[in-house]
Amino acid sequence: MATTEHDFKGQLKYEHFQFFFRRHWMRFLQPIFFTIPVGLMIFVILLVLGRLTFMVDFTFLRAFYVFFAMIVSIAFINTFFLQVINFYFDLVILTDCRVLIIRKTVFLKNNSDAIDLTKIQDIAVEAHGVLRNYLKYGKLIITLSTSAPPVTISFVPDPHYYLEWANRVKREHIIQRQEKIKTPEAVPQIHKQNDYLQDIHNLHTPV
What we know:
The chain has a four-stranded antiparallel beta sheet. The protein has a three-stranded antiparallel beta sheet with strand order 5-6-7. 8% of the residues are buried. The two termini are 31 Å apart. Helix 1 (25-54) runs antiparallel to helix 2. A hairpin with a 6-residue loop joins strand 6 (137-144) and strand 7 (151-157). It has five helices and seven strands. By secondary structure, the protein is α+β, with helices and mostly antiparallel strands. The protein folds into two domains: 17-23 and 90-204, PH-domain like; 28-87.
């Protein structure tokens, strides 16, 4: 998905949204492939326990089994649907200043990483295997100009398309910085620095 008309939570005043994407749907299928066998195993265990429980004429044990089966079933269904919801929270956003990698779940995790475009040395695509090339997904490997290890974004849909787009945004960002260095304007620079300082202050100010 791509657009240039969206704002997002945490956007800085001086940056402009370029595009975003969610992970490929194979990222969503992996938990399902694990969940289905687990669900079948739980069903078989509950079925066997149910047969053994109802063979005994003990009312409390039967009531406890029904309660236990309901709790396990509800927990399994909630876990399954949480995987579906978490799929939509996993985003990568690119602006004309930085790359935001958001890894969020409903309850347990709310992580985000930001990479300045000026710190990106190279961006590469890794798509090994017939399945990845046929379904058009792979990895974006971001090499930084610092000593930090490369940042890998997996399950990127149509990675070559987003590679070209990210490189184009990075080139435009470099050209704009060079033009501002050649022809500095005092007043806009002051306003931009004030906006930057205000954004930093807002980030550190508790809500």
